[in-house]
Amino acid sequence: MKALSQPKPSFVSLEYPSLWFTLGAIAVLWTLGYASILVFTVFSEAFPIFQAEGWNLITGTEWIPEENHGGFPIIFGSVAVTSIALAFAVPLAWASAVFTAECLEGRLRLFVKAVMELLAGIPGIIYGLVGMVFLSPWIKNTFHLIDGNTLLTAGLLLGVMILPVLMTLAEDAVRAVPEEYRATALALGLTRWETLRSVTLPQARSGLMGALFLGMGRALGETVAVLLVIGSLDRLPSPWYNMLDAGQNIPAKLGREAAESLGYGLQWNALMGLGALLFIVAASTTILGNRFLGRIRT
After folding, report:
1. Is residue 33 part of a domain?
2. What is the reported pTM?
């Protein structure tokens, strides 16, 4: 009687196990150390602006370098642009994800998803240039403006940028719902629409919310594309809900002025303060997104 063949030991377990363990430990420690240094640097550089001006960076409305650093219009611009992007992209992404996952089959579904993933990998500068050439003139001519670089332009462009990411993650969430749930619902007499509404979407809710939060994190951090079409004015729109006015958001502000004031004066500390606020919000949305996505994997 032949003895059962034993699986061959892997290279890692066969030779130099302590070396591989050491290299892995070094890589983990280096990553943790780098992240710690990054966080410490940002917050330590931001501390002097709060020490000098208190909460003016968050509540103030006037930005004069080295004199007054009121960042509320910039924070408002970030909220406005991100909200417009999500309002534009989320319904389209969720609808596209449901259609792709539930109605398309085989190679056609894989082709659509591959196109979305390809669009998600296009550099932001390309989107920004396209926005400058097509979107800004369209906004200008449609609303009869002097300049097409507005908060609405930046929000719509950002929505187009995050649409592929949202759609891909949302499609994964819908596909993750076990097929047995759909089969059981159909066997009980529910139509495909009733199955989608009553079974599939409730089961995919965590994944859809995770896609939303990760898309929000992507929108909050985008710099170059927004910088090219937002107008870059450190003021609140007049009236405040006028999204056809030029504005500013945190990434665009950092991208435009950080190099000019690198490491010097309260202007630098104020920019790092804005960076710290952006870091907190973006990290929070990413953590929430991953927690929601983690629920569909367990």
Report:
1. no
2. 0.86
Residue 105: what pLDDT? Answer: 81
- Cα distances from 217 to residues 37, 42, 86, 162, 188, in angstroms, run 22, 18, 11, 10, 40
- Domain-located, residue 100: yes
Read off the CATH number of the domain in which 188 is found: 1.10.3720.10
pLDDT tens per residue across span 134-148: 999 999 999 999 999
Residue 40 lies in a domain: no
Q: Looking at residues 181-193, what average pLDDT do you find?
A: 86
Number of domains the chain is built from = 1
Please tell me the predicted confidence (pLDDT) of residue 298: 56
Cis preceding linkage at 239, omega within 30 = yes
Q: What span, in angstroms and rounded, lies between the C-alpha atoms of 162 and 75?
A: 20
Surface-to-core class of residue 256, CB atoms within 10 Å of its CB (0-12 exposed, 13-18 middle, 19+ buried): middle
Query: How is 90-108 classified by DSSP, letter by letter?
Result: HHHHHHHHHHHHHH--HHH
Rounded to whole angstroms, the Cα distance separating 207 from 171 reads 9
197 in any annotated domain: yes
pLDDT for residue 75 is more than 80: yes
Query: What domain range includes position 279?
Result: 55-297
